[in-house]
Amino acid sequence: MTTEALYLQQLINGLSLGAMYALLALGFTLVYGILELINFAHFNVFMVSSFVAMWALELLGLQGQNTVLTGFALVGALVFAFVVTMTVAGCLGVAIERLALRPMRAVRGTAAMITTIGVSYILFNTILLTAGADSKNVPNPMPDIRWAIGDATLRLREVLIWAISLALMVGLHLFVTRTRLGKAMRATAQDAEAARMMGIDVDRVIITAFFLGSALAGAAALIFGLYYNYTSFIIGYSAGLRAFTAAVLGGIGSVAGAMLGGVLIGLIEAFGGQIVSVRWTDVIIFSILVLVLVFVPTGLLGRSAPSKS
Amino acid sequence: MPELLAFRAVDTYYGDLHVLKAVDYRIDQGEIVCLLGGNASGKSTTMKAIMGVVNPERGDILFEGKSLRGVSVAERVRRGIAPVLEARRLFPRMTVYENLEMGAYIHPRSADFDSDLGRVFTLFPRVKERLKQLAGTLSGGEQQMVAIGRALMARPKLLCMDEPSMGLSPLFVEQVFDIIQTINGQGTTIFMVEQNANMALSIAHRAYVLQTGQVVLSGPAAELRENEMIRQAYLGQMKVA
Amino acid sequence: MPNPDTSAQPSRNMMGASYAWLRRASPVQRIPHYWRQPLGLIATTAAALLFPIISGNDANIDSAANALAFAALALGLNIVVGFAGLLDLGYAAFFAIGAYTYGALASFQLEPAWSGFWEPFQWLDLVARVHEPSGDTVHFQVSFWLALPISAVTAALFGVLFGAPTLRLKGDYLAIVTLGFGEIVPIVARNWQGLTNGAMGLNGVAAPQLFGWSFGVRAWPYYYVGVALVALLILVSTRLKVSRIGRAWMAIREDEIAASAMGINLVRLKLLAFATGAAFAGATGTYFVAKLQTATPEMFMFPVSVMILVMIVFGGIGSVWGVVAGALILQILQSWFLEDLSQWLHALGRLVNVEWLQQVELSSWIEMIFGVILVAMMLYRRQGLIPATRAVQALSLAEQTAQLGVNTGTGGIERLHNLGDFTYRGDAPLLEVKGLTVRFGGLVALREIDLTVPARSIVAVIGPNGSGKSTLFNAVTGLVRQQSGIIRFAGEDIERAPPHAVLAHGMARTFQNIRLFPNLTVLENVLVGMHARLHTGAVGALLHLPRTQREEAAARERALEILAVFGNRLIPRVDHTVASLSYANRRRVEIARALASEPKLLLLDEPTAGMNPAETLELAGQIKSLHELGLSIVLIEHKLDVVVSLADNVVVLDHGEMIAEGPPDVVRRDEEVIRAYLGRSASLGGVAVA
């Protein structure tokens, strides 16, 4: 392969990773925008969802890489898997909010964040203790259709991932700008007390944010499974931290920022692995996280510096 | 006039801090009632208690004769109480139109939305010109108009205003107080916390004076303006003068 | 209303109430209180020393030694998180740095070629010359005892290096940055094969020796080193906690802005906390590696940081004995109890013939258990097993009415001799502000303000809410930086000075919405106010020299005297947390805290807000007395009678502009003032202005 082709290939890979990180980053941003809470449980909501996605695909009788679907069967299977995974993930997020985080809402400081670390641990170990430590094969029903672009290859799964991610993000954008509940969500994020005084049910808004954020993590988890064809109890941590970095890079609390940050982190991961070395990718990404927080805490599209004490 | 809002021996606490101490208020339909008091006297807590953000430890708050105990903020707005918050508190990154929409949040898909909007435009023609602008970019005076307009979109029976004159230029303060009188003339009862005692007493029917969480004085506004203690404490007139 | 930031009390109090039954007389409480502490200490020490002899089981002693390492780590993290309130999620990184420091200093990992450079080190016995066919190499053989302080210092240096740019981030953002750092260090360790041997683990780490006798693989010598280490760190923690340094850390934890306004250099104190915590972890790392005689990057990953965090949350954030107990209990649970419990479950499984019960390995459940403990503690007992803040006993009627030789009026202050020197004796005006303009975004909060405060004067600033009065205080004291113009204090330019430096110059302030340190006592709050006037540093606090003790005793004495300015309002409550005080008493404590810094100029932001007329009168009298002692005062006040009775000069602000200035009587007649401040009808004659 020529260097140009290699870069083109990494661009394709980076965009796919970026789409996944962006979806995951939206969950951090939605919750942070309203509660100013960094939700560590989100890492493992993503991981648990990847298992849900696997089980949903297996429920359709798909096993490993053997069953390939086309046409309506493929569309139906994907729609089914997305709906099931996103619903279960969303409900998981709502349950976490109700059981563990709502009682912490009046407590100032970092207590709520520490709680989310505990929740994350519980989710992590629930999967480890029930499903085991070995990585699992996620069924992939997509036919192996490829297009050659020069020496680089574009696969059907990548096109599908882009399309689905784009559709979900456009949907989210329409939700927060056009619907009554979506506008209430923005109002709550900008001034929760004033929103409450308008008669907006802030509890409902928060639940909605957790549901949507977690459902998007569910979508990201299914995409992860379809892209890498495996899952394991450890995937939450590194994917979650990358997505969190993406949210911070774009400006946490900003929906557009999460999308932009996600794509950038995806590209950085792909090209960083290509140019430097895969073993240093994590160091590069964490360094970006630290540098952005220290020097540009508002992120690229953020509006105000993080100031919660 | 029938009673609209009443505090019956209300005590509130903030942590260990006893804020309101056995406070009684009575606001009748159609009145403008003003609440005077220094900073930290319990004025804002009164507003929070009406909206249900702070709940009485003892005593009861009645609206239209029914207790508000355990009634959610949203339900209070639905029953007809709307606040104009201190320092206006618009949603800065939403447009003026969206802010007004949020004011009408409790009337989803209401057929009256347009007529409510029309009423706001009649009161504040400037608001109509700014509909598409982000609220955070408006001047202080324009923000106060939108804040009052936003509260009116809820079609309140009782408008609770926390320091409507704060941070406004003197000319604009007069406009705001004129508009408060107009709104009252259209049938909305007004309960107002105000530090600009002279101005407030000039349009109010009655007033209460709050001091370290207790009502120390109440009566018709005209009488209070002649009261020696009020003149000293709030109207800037010393015995020495 | 108090700012919600200053007090998050409701939940804590509810918590206290539901555990009230714990406070009923237990057998322990029948021991006189002055015996409890020494008795407990003796019993703990005896138990720690006798344990290996009683136990006799090498495996148990070994797990106990491991548990001690975690207790040491918990103590270090407690300094950072518990004392200074800086959530560090990558604490294990410093543990790693300490571990690899010893790895580099006392193993076969690094073997550079021999050269003359190494000869002095050979002479000091730090390195040895190894003869090899391919040429001589250097073997590092630094003694374990020397390596302990070296790795502590190395880790502390990394703490400073990493902390300097990041510690100005607040709360959860700092947590994320530390998490990133905590991730980077093990990755570097894994990839830097030369130093660490990567995932394979360090090679040939030397065992500690004492007078030529090697510890080898016996458990008990390590155990006693661990006991000594933990005992030392407990001593360091407790001494720091009650010192000037510890109080400054807790002030930062409670309210950064107030801490900085009271003279605490935030960056320096935060770095000190970070470095101290890192040093604890560094020394522990060396101990742990010497004991295991190897180290792999996995020993320092995120789960380890979280485990230490769970330990301090479980034991009680900020409580020294609590975090030690938390660490020991959780480690012992992990290494002994879960094993035994698994055995019992297997037996039970065989008995009732249930297959999975026979398979259960509870030791793999440990992280799950940690997660559950973390969530459960946060939800139901946030103060931990042994809470750091003591319960406040209610004041008896006798105590409330006790007279302490000073009455509540104004007559007593002259009799107090130890208040400090408030008199400014220089020639330049005390405070001089010229052309001060402050902008927030597009909004001009203050425009071209000129203000002069002559020595020994009282200047009042009046104006409607939102007219810029508090912004003026914030700009003058360095809390707001978006400014232009000149601010001179006692002839020196201070417009670029940070808040703690402004205080050091001799200007102290109170806040409109009261910013005390809610979980510190009245006395501690006042002592924090003295921060800039005391000298004890971390080293002094540790050594507890006579000089330090004298300074501390004098400080406490002076604090009591300052509190006595308010008669018996505060004296009976010196050991109460300020969260339990009334509004008026909080205002008094805030003034006392400001006085403690021995200011020449005191800025009071609505000192009588929330006070009734009698209390207002009392405070006005006390302010007057302080003024007579030489103190100059700038006063924001709404109550005009207070202004008239106190002020020499009045400045009127409206919309960020100064619209009038002059003696109270003149200002009160100014047309523009009447219009802006007193309202329309006053100027229209609705109320006659006499």
Descriptive account of the structure:
Chain A is mainly alpha-helical and 309 residues long. Chain A has helices spanning 3-35, 41-59, 71-101, 111-131, 156-178, 180-190, 192-197, 202-228, 235-250, 255-275, 281-295; strands at residues 136-137, 146-149, 152-155, 230-231. Chain B is an alpha/beta fold and 241 residues long. Chain B has ten helices and twelve strands. In chain B, 54% of the residues are buried. Residues 237-241 of chain B have low confidence and may be disordered. By secondary structure, chain C is α/β, with parallel strands linked by helices. Helices cover 54% and strands 10% of the residues of chain C. Chain C is built from 29 helices and 14 strands. In chain C, the strands form four sheets. A six-stranded mixed sheet of chain C has the order 10-11-12-7-13-14, sandwiched between helices. Chain C has a four-stranded antiparallel sheet with strand order 6-5-8-9, covered by helices on one side. In chain C, strands 1-2 form a two-stranded antiparallel sheet. In chain C, helix 23 (546-563) packs across helix 24 (583-596). The longest helix of chain C is centred in the middle third of the chain and has 33 residues, at 320-352. Mean pLDDT of chain C is 85; it is low at 1-23, 403-411 and 680-690.
